[in-house]
Structure formats: C-alpha cells, structure tokens
C-alpha cells in the first residue's frame, strides 16, 4: 500500500470515529444544514434583486417605485441571510462544544483507567497537551471547518446553476478557469499535512519540558542548571519554529494564490460581460454570436454575474483554508484517539473474598519493564496473615517493583500472586486494591480542603472520624494552626512542609483502615521525634494486619516478623533480623554498613 493510500485510509478512520461523536447531536447537524441552505438561498437572491434594480433605472416611466421595491427586497434578503448565518453559527458552536466535552471526557476517563505503564512512559506535559490543546484544534479545524466547507460547496453549486440559467457561455468560461484555483489549493495543502503532524508532536514535547521544569524548578536552581534547561528549551523551540514556519508558510500561500486565480476569473467575467452588453445593445436587445442566438444581456445581468463570480470564487478561498485546518485537525485527532484507545487495566474476574485474612503467596513470579532487560525471575515468597514484612536491599534491586506487582500496577510476565489462596487476577481490581492501604515517599494532595484530602477514598467518613485519624497520625496540631483548620484549601499559597504533607497521607490510610498495609519509606520526610510517634501509631494499626514495609533505614524494621533481602530482582535472603545477622551474609553487610563506627 502506497503512502498516499495509507494517509487516505488513516483520515477515513479518523473521520468515521469523529462521526460517532457527532451522531448523538444530529439535531444540531440537521439545523446547521437547514440554516446553511437558507443562508445560501438569501445570499443568491440578493444580487438578482439588485441587478433588476439597476435595469429598472433604464426604464423611462415609474422606475423609482420599482427600484425602491427591489432595494427593499434586497435589504430583506441581507437581513434574513445574516439571521440564518447567526443561527447556523449557534448550531455549529453548540455541536463543537458538546463534542469537545465528550472527547475530553473520554480521554480523561481512558487516562484514569489506563495502565501505570502508560503514565510512566509518557511525558505528563505531552499527555496534558493532547487533552487540552489538541482537542481544541480538532474542534476548530474539523467541525467549524466542515461547516464552512458545507456552506461553501452549496454556494458554489447553487451559483453555478443560476449563472448557467442567465448566460451559459460566461458560466462555461468560469467553470473552465475554476480548476486552476483547485489545482493551486490541492498542490499546496498536500504538502502541509506532514508539517502539521510534526508540529503538534513538537508542541507536546515543548509542553512536557516546560512541565518538567516547573515541577523540578528548585532542583534546577540548586544545581545551577538554568542555562542547560534554557538551552534545551531553545533547541525544542527552534525545531518548533522551523517546522511551524514551514507549515504556516505553505498554509499562507493557499489563500493569496487562490485569490489571484479568482481575481483573474473575475476580470474575465467583467470583460466578457461588458462585451456581451455592448453586442446585445447593438442587436436590439438580442445577443447573436454567429449562428448562436442568446437572450439579451443587460447591465443588471452583468452586475448579477459579477456578484456571482465573486461569490462563486470566494468559497474556494474558504475551502482552501479549511483544508489547511483539516490537516492540522487530523494530526491532533490522531493524538487524542491514542489516549482514548490506550488499553485499560484488566479488571479481573468475579472471584470475591469475604473477610480478608491477609495470606500472601507469590509463586514463580517473573517480570521486567523491558523484554530485553531481566529484572525479577522466578520469585517465590510466602507471607502469613498478620505478619510484618520488611523489604530491604540496595537501590534498583526491585523493592518498589515488588510493591507495584503486589498492587497490580503492573501484571506479571509469568507466575501468580495469591491472596488467601485466591489468584489476584481473578479478584475484581477495585475490590483487590481496597484490600491495601499505601503510603509512598511522594505525597499526593489535591487542591481541596485538608478534610477532603484525609477522607480521599473514604467518602462516607464523618468529621469526627477524620479528626480521629489526624490525631493518630500526629497532624491534628498543625492542621488546627492553619487559617481555616480542616477546611483550609491546600493551594500554592498554603505553606506546609513535605513532612506535614506526608503526615496527612498517613492519616488518610489510617482513616481507610485497610486489611493490609504497604509503607514505602512512609516516614522519610518526618523528623525523628515525630517518626517515633508515628512508628507507635503504625504498630497499633498493623496489629492483626499483613504489612509490607520498604525501608532504607534498617533500624526501623528490627522487629519485623520476616525480612526479605532483595538484590538484582531476586530474594536472596529471608528471615528475622536475628536469623539474618547470624548468617553473616548480604544483610549482615548491609546492616553493618549503616551502623559500623
């Protein structure tokens, strides 16, 4: 299949998908079609009335009365055409905004249901650009452009019919010269699609870099990397300029080129019409061209023809501009549909567990982020309900990966994870994840009230329960010192530390009261005194619950029921602290490296 055929097939596929979004709002489409017909009809009738008014001026008697009547009709046509155009715009705009709403909703729903792998492998700024900027481009380019295209095609067709009725010789001249305009427009727009496709990709790359810079601004300043960040931005911006310049250059050529051709057509009509008027006047109101005899051609008819020639060629300019917009819109629509089509997480089966005990068994688990880079191979772990499990090891050994697999953020390549003897893949995903409470190093807090953030995931929690959880997490004191206490909205103007943010996340998990806990360096940003208090709170909440603790500071997990020592994706040692120290193996070296004097 040739590249042109692939592009046509691609565009047809995008068009069909967009039509599925338009279908629920077919009433707006019908309304737009009706008002388009009325608009074109009134626009075409107007010049006929003005032409007759011009011819009426050459009459010897009572011409003023007829002229005023015709001019009143012309004014009424202009008024009705404007009204039809306004109603047409209302239909198109309503359709546009409703489709934009549906596109963004589906893209966001797909994003929230997508696999963590997609989020990890795509720049956040680029994803945001697809949902925000690209959807707007689809709306402007496809929907509003198609409306102009529809009206323009109708104007061309209706104008041709009327011109052939008035004088088919001049109409034929217009038709013969028209392909010049079409050829110029097609020649230019054919070269714009590739440039616009590259342009939206680089725009996404620029948005991603800007988002990255804003997120890590303190780190950039700390390491004096402002110049390097600016150079990277300038490099992307330069590429965007070059690609955008080419796209806009070809795009900008379309309108003046077609206007030049249209001006040539207009000049031909004017000269030929004037000649016909003179010949008609000489032959007593009848136009004879050799053996061909035509009805008389008046000055009023020439005026009508000139108006129609202008109206006939004007849509070609609009259509050529629309084609340019369509190139950009198709490229953006493809990026939006990539997000919508992203494969969601497997929701699991219908094998529900009543009361969760917390027995965890991992059998022959294998996993890697990239096929060519092995990470976890044939991992086997057995954990009894109510146990406190610590996971330790050097950076990159697979601790966080093991947590990701436990939470089913990623699916195993082979093997299985069992909860209370039930394969995790057969448990509904929403129910499975409710079994775990998780506190990460990175604290996520939304721009909502403190109470809302603590109750996130526990929608039915009362204020009393929220405050009780906050007290258990030792964050009630600093919350009450905020301007509005628990009703303080956490925006950029509210100054709370990383440690305080982490305490709020700990309070959130305590409020959720899940059967199992996962703590990934949950106290990394907390001072020693508060950490000691939190550890006491954790001991209370972990009683009777299976708990997984990822720790770098080995002093925090000395009382663990089982310590899993990982290295290069494998559990190389396991046992209690005393058992592992007695072996004098990898864990012994790791522990002594932290506490040796």
Outline the secondary-structure elements.
Elements: H1 3-22, H2 26-56, H3 63-113, H4 116-121, H5 124-166, H6 168-189, H7 193-215, H8 217-222, H9 226-282, E1 287-289, E2 292-294, H10 299-340, E3 360-367, E4 376-383, E5 388-392, H11 399-406, E6 414-419, E7 422-423, H12 429-434, E8 436-439, H13 450-454, H14 463-472, H15 476-480, H16 498-512, E9 516-520, H17 528-542, E10 546-550, E11 562-567, E12 570-575, H18 577-583, H19 586-595
Parallel strand pairs: 5-10, 5-11, 8-9, 9-10
Antiparallel strand pairs: 1-2, 3-4, 3-6, 6-7, 11-12
Helix pairs in contact: 2-3, 2-5, 2-10, 3-5, 3-10, 5-6, 5-7, 5-10, 6-9, 6-10, 7-9, 7-10, 9-10, 14-16
Under CATH at level 1, the class of the largest domain stands as Mainly Alpha
- The coarse overall form would be elongated
**Which second-level CATH architecture of the largest domain applies?**
Up-down Bundle
Number of domain units: 3
Helical residue percent? 55-70%
* Sequence of strands across the biggest β-sheet: 8-9-10-5-11-12
Average of the residue pLDDT scores: 79
The strand count comes to 12
**Biggest sheet character:** 6 strands, mixed
Question: N- to C-terminal separation?
Answer: 71 Å
């Amino acid at each position: 299949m040739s590249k042109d055929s692939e592009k046509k097939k691609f565009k047809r596929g995008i068009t069909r998908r967009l039509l599925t979004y338009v279908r629920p709002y077919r009433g707006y489409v019908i309304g737009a079609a009706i008002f388009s017909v009325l608009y074109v009809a009134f626009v075409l009738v107007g010049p006929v009335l003005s032409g007759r008014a011009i011819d009426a001026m050459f009459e010897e008697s009572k011409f003023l009365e007829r002229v005023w009547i015709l001019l009143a009709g012309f004014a009424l046509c202009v008024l009705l055409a404007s009204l039809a155009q306004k109603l047409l715009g209302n239909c198109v705009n309503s359709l546009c905004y409703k489709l934009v709403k549906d596109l963004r909703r589906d893209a966001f729903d797909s994003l929230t249901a997508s696999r963590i792998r997609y989020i990890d492998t795509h720049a956040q700024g680029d994803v945001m650009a697809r949902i925000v900027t690209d959807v707007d481009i689809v709306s402007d380019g496809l929907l509003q452009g198609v409306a102009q295209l529809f009206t323009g095609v109708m104007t061309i067709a209706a104008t041709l019919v009327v011109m052939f009725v008035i004088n088919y010789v001049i109409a034929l001249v217009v038709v013969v010269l028209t392909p010049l305009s079409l050829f110029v427009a097609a020649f230019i727009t054919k070269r714009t699609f590739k440039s616009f496709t590259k342009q939206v990709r680089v725009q996404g790359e620029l948005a991603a870099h800007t988002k990255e810079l804003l997120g890590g601004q303190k780190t950039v300043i700390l390491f004096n990397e402002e110049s390097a960040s600016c150079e990277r931005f300038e490099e992307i911006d330069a590429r965007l300029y070059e690609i955008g310049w080419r796209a806009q250059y070809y795009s900008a050529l379309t309108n003046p080129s077609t206007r030049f051709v249209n001006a040539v057509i207009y000049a031909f009509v004017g000269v030929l019409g004037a000649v016909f008027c003179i010949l008609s006047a000489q032959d007593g109101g009848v136009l004879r061209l050799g053996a061909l005899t035509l009805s008389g051609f008046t000055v009023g008819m020439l005026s009508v023809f000139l108006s129609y020639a202008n109206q006939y060629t004007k849509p070609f300019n609009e259509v050529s501009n629309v084609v340019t917009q369509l190139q950009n819109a198709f490229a953006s629509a493809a990026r939006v549909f990539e997000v919508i089509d992203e494969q969601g997480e497997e929701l699991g089966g219908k094998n529900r567990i009543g009361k969760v005990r917390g027995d965890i068994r991992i059998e022959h688990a294998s996993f890697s982020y990239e096929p060519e880079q092995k990470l976890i191979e044939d991992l086997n772990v057995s954990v009894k309900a109510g146990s406190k499990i610590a996971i330790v090891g050097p950076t990159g050994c697979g601790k966080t990966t093991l947590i990701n697999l436990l939470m089913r953020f990623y699916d195993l390549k082979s093997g299985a994870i069992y909860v209370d003897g039930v394969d995790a893949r057969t448990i509904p995903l929403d129910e499975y994840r409710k079994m775990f409470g998780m506190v990460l190093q990175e604290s996520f807090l939304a721009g909502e009230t403190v109470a809302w953030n603590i109750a996130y995931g526990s929608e039915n929690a009362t204020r009393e329960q929220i405050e009780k959880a906050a007290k258990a997490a030792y964050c009630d004191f600093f919350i009450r010192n905020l301007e509005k206490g628990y009703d303080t909205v956490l925006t950029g103007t509210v100054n709370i530390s990383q440690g305080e943010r982490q305490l709020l996340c700990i309070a959130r998990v305590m409020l959720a009261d899940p059967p199992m806990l996962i703590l990934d360096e949950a106290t990394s940003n907390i001072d020693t005194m508060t950490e000691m208090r939190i550890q006491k709170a954790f001991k209370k909440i972990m009683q009777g619950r299976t708990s997984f603790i990822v720790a770098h500071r080995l002093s925090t997990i000395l009382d663990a029921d089982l310590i899993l020592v990982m290295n290069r994706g494998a559990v190389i040692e396991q046992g209690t602290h005393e058992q592992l120290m007695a072996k004098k193996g990898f864990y012994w070296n790791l522990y002594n490296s932290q506490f040796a004097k």
